[in-house]
Amino acid sequence: MTSSTDNDGQGMIVNPRPTADNQDWDGDDADRADRLRFEEEQAMIREQSEAHAAAKAAADAKKRASA
Q1: First and final CA of the chain: distance in angstroms?
Q2: Cα 29 to the chain's mean position, in Å?
Q3: pLDDT tens-digit readout, 7-66
Q4: How far is CA 61 from CA 19, 48, 49, 52, 53, in A?
Q5: Surface-to-core class of residue 66, CB atoms within 10 Å of its CB (0-12 exposed, 13-18 middle, 19+ buried)
Q6: CA angle, 45 as apex, 42 and 51 as ends, to 5°?
Q7: How far apart are alpha carbons 63 and 65 in whole angstroms?
């Protein structure tokens, strides 16, 4: 016979809210924040790429001028 402590529920994952109340709706504030963060990161990557390309072009021009 098993004792009452063998299956006391410890370690079980429990969702405290019903699934109807726990839905992620498209277009909520978190989604808008994620899109804004993504757009900002893409803009930063573009700016860094453009700055890198400009620095490379300047270095190439300086190298040609000194040759």
Answers
A1: 91
A2: 15
A3: 666 666 666 666 666 566 667 888 889 999 999 999 999 999 999 999 999 999 999 998
A4: 62, 20, 18, 14, 12
A5: exposed
A6: 140
A7: 5
> Which runs of consecutive H residues, i.e. helices, occur in 1-67?
29-66
C-alpha closest to that of 36 among 49, 22, 44: 44
pTM: predicted TM-score of the whole model, two decimal places: 0.53
Return the sign of the alpha-carbon dihedral for residues 52, 57, 62, 67.
positive
The two tokens of residue 29 are 């504030």
Tokens of 66: 């000194």
**For residue 56, what are its two tokens?**
């490379």
